[in-house]
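Preliminary data (for renewal application), molybdenum atom complex.
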Amino acid sequence: MALISSGFRGRRRSDPALPPGQYLTNGFPVLSAGPTPRVPLDEWTFTLSLGRGEQRVWNWAEFMALPQESVTTDIHCVTSWSKLGTTWRGVAVDTLFEGIDHEFGFTMAHSYGGYTTNVPLADLLGGKAWVAWEFDGKPLAAEHGGPARLLVPHLYFWKSAKWVSGLELTPNDQPGFWESNGYHMRGDPWLEQRYW
Ligand SMILES: Nc1nc2c(c(=O)[nH]1)N[C@H]1C(S)=C(S)[C@@H](COP(=O)(O)O)O[C@H]1N2
Ligand SMILES: [Mo]
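Predicted structure:
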């Protein structure tokens, strides 16, 4: 009897969309390491830094003129909440890299306000990541990273830099803000790569 009921609870707990150690939330918690920067759209730019001083810069109008994609995806925070079926709109990182010569395999995402997080380039290309500016059909709220945030939903959500200002290509994997404070360098929720 005890075995049956514990097995039943186990199955109910393990939604196949839920990585190990995560629980579901319907809310949308705000997690920010500092104050929320307010970036006017007419001052906003996104910079792709390729190394050797080469860069590509988009202003808001240029960014909005790029092909836009709608994305429905699950997100997983390292503090254990997951939110399923979230809807976003934004520009695929693939689109930003179109026609661009680059040689480095790692990136550092930079944010207005100074936050950084490192993501291997392979985790940003191939339809895996976006610079998102709409959430749930509305412009992304400032506390959730508006005007635009990185969205890398297959990694823990700290990799999805809010208020993103650009991506810097780097030859080596360098730790960003949370990674320097003990968070994992990659952060795959299915492998529970929380801390190191
Ligand atoms: N610029 C910036 N981006 C950030 C953070 C931050 O503090 N600053 N926090 C990260 C963490 S730890 C998480 S869990 C998510 C939280 O996003 P949310 O506040 O929209 O839920 O943003 C990530 N991106
Ligand atoms: Mo987080």
